[in-house]
């Protein structure tokens, strides 16, 4: 694991278009169908040239070091192919997580991601989306056409959102903060163990989501937000240094001019670089302190709490709950949908269908 120098996955030249995570194999490009309900990018919104992820009807989360990248607006399609523009205000910041809130006059999101709160992420598969660079030139050691392929430089911005897969290698903590980046991060290595879709972050991926499918219930949930990468790399201590997605840094220098460390060629095993995404589960007190209970006192049309509003699943879950079989993620008030203290009455049923039709409880 390389930690000599960390580069924020933003901090090179400013960018103005969507881009891509780097994968070992062919690029995994997001298309229109991926933004629909159930698709890979169903919870992806555009925050200027970066991304954010809705986590409640009124809030989305992204990386702090992006600042106000969206200029006070957020674009989100709510499980469709048509974006809505939302006016936003900053609600709170902790480490490299910032939560933004919709302005009072803005309509609510109709879809938002569940959060992964178990804290057992190590070893679990993940899926990451972002707007980083394309794959650039090959990195070989030694630096000749006959050298061994060790990875790729960061490429150019070319207008695509892509996705990739990996596995959580470890939880990394920076205390005191490293260059302002503190707390716990999910770390995943670019080590050639995950097939062609194995990915590493690059410039522009900051703020993008990391999803884990919860082994407890099979639901895909937000586990982290993209923040940092390992780097930079060079063939000489004096540079030039370059950022890259490297699966074996043996024989290369990592760091920067005047602060470089040689990774010995004689190391017995490959030395991969990796990516750092800010962990959600260790910051739940901060998150819930801003967004409040997962559901309001009076129920919503997302009765089963999966972030998909007003579906057949919500109706089925509601009537199952009336029969005494409430799911674990269902509305916290259970069959007392209108929160009047009287459970499973005609008033609860009437309130549920009013909300389902878009009205007030």
Quick rundown:
It is built from three helices and 22 strands. The protein is mainly beta. A hairpin with a 2-residue loop joins β20 (253-256) and β21.
Report on the structure:
With about 350 residues, the protein is mainly β. Helices cover about 10% and strands about 35% of the residues. It has three helices and 22 strands. It has helices at about 285-290, 310-320, 345-355, and strands spanning about 5-10, 20-25, 45, 50-55, 60-65, 75, 85-95, 95-100, 125-130, 135-140, 150-155, 160-165, 170-180, 180-190, 200, 210-215, 220-230, 235, 245, 255, 260, 275-280. The strands form five sheets. Strands 1, 9, 12, 13, 14, 16, 17 and 22 form an eight-stranded antiparallel β-sheet that branches. The longest helix is centred in the C-terminal third of the chain and has 11 residues, at about 310-320. The model is unreliable at about 10-20 (pLDDT under 50).
Please render the helix and strand layout as text.
Elements: E1 6-8, E2 22-23, E3 45-47, E4 50-56, E5 59-63, E6 73-76, E7 84-94, E8 97-102, E9 125-130, E10 135-141, E11 148-154, E12 162-167, E13 170-178, E14 181-189, E15 199-200, E16 209-213, E17 220-230, E18 233-234, E19 244-246, E20 253-256, E21 259-262, E22 274-279, H1 284-291, H2 312-322, H3 346-356
Antiparallel strand pairs: 1-17, 2-15, 3-4, 3-6, 4-5, 5-8, 6-7, 7-8, 9-12, 9-16, 10-11, 11-19, 13-14, 14-22, 16-17, 17-22, 18-20, 20-21
């Amino acid at each position: 694991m390389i930690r000599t120098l960390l580069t924020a996955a933003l901090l090179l030249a400013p960018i103005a278009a969507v881009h891509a995570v780097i994968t070992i194999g062919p690029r995994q490009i997001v298309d229109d169908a991926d933004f629909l309900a159930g698709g890979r990018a169903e919870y992806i919104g555009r925050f200027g040239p970066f991304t954010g992820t809705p986590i409640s009807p009124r809030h989305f989360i992204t990386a702090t070091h992006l600042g106000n990248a969206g200029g006070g607006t957020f674009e989100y399609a709510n499980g469709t192919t048509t974006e809505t523009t939302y006016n936003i205000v900053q609600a709170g910041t902790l480490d490299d997580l910032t939560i933004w809130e919709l302005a009072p006059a803005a309509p609510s999101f109709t879809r938002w991601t569940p959060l992964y709160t178990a804290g057992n992420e190590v070893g679990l598969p993940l899926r990451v989306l972002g707007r980083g660079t394309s794959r650039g030139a090959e990195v070989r050691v030694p630096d000749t056409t006959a050298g061994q392929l060790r990875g790729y430089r960061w490429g150019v911005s070319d207008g695509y959102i892509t996705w990739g897969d990996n596995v959580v290698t470890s939880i990394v903590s920076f205390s005191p903060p490293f260059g302002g980046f503190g707390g716990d991060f999910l770390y995943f290595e670019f080590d050639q163990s995950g097939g062609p879709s194995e990915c590493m972050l690059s410039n522009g991926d900051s703020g993008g989501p990391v999803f884990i499918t919860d082994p407890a219930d099979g639901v895909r949930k937000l586990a982290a937000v993209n923040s940092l990468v390992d780097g930079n790399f060079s063939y000489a201590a004096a540079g030039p240094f370059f950022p890259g997605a490297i699966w074996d840094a043996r024989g290369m220098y990592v760091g920067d001019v005047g602060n470089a460390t040689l990774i010995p060629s004689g190391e017995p095993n490959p030395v991969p670089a990796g990516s750092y995404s800010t962990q959600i589960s260790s910051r739940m007190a901060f998150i819930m302190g801003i967004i409040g209970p997962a559901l309001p006192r009076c129920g919503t049309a997302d009765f089963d709490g999966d972030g998909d509003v007003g579906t057949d699943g919500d109706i089925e879950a509601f009537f199952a709950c009336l029969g005494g079989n409430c799911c674990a993620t269902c509305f916290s008030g259970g069959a007392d949908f209108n929160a009047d203290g009287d459970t499973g009455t005609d008033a609860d049923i009437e309130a549920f269908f009013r909300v389902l039709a878009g009205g007030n409880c």
